[in-house]
Amino acid sequence: MTPGFWIGRLGQVRMRFGCAGARNTSPPSGSYRHRPLSCPPSSGGLRAVNPFQSLSEYEQFVYTLLQQYPFVLRSTLTVARRSRGIAMLTGELHFAQGYRLLVSELLTWDSGPVLIQRYGYEVWSANEKLYWYDPQPHPDDPSLASTHPHHKHTPPDTTVPEAKRSGIKHHRTPAPGLRFDGPNLPLLIDEILGQLAVDDENA
Length: 203
Prior knowledge:
Layout: H1 3-16, H2 55-63, H3 65-68, E1 74-75, E2 78-83, E3 86-94, E4 99-108, E5 115-125, E6 128-134, E7 151-153, H4 161-166, E8 172-174, H5 185-202
Antiparallel strand pairs: 1-3, 2-3, 3-4, 4-5, 5-6, 6-7, 7-8
């Protein structure tokens, strides 16, 4: 099957359901802000269905990301089968201005859709780690309950002494849109492209 098939298939899923149940009518252009195949983060509305019913389908999606997202400059993502029904997705996506997305996913499938059992996503700018996502449960933190166990580690507000002392490792926020039963890469790519758009506007 051609890359266009997978681009069209994922686009149809998003057009029908979307991350918030809304149709995306943005026209394609050279701007970072126009990404007709991508979904913005959302904590409400309808959830997109899982379009990948086998590992081979997910592999095709991963290996055609550069066609789907022209602003991704380079990909080293690789899907490696570890044993029957288990695989690992690892590697990096490279963007303009030195942004990088480091990806690690433990994947399983058993005569059904591909599921993400465990993941780690890190966003870097050159040699600086900006933020990361992980699903390590923190049931005692009520601020994360809305997206439990998915959450994001971000730099704390350094003007607040207690937050400054905690550091990025202990500064967690909810992560709307991340899931185990569908692809997270579109949301993560969108987030970086959004930052690139902001950087361009501030340049």
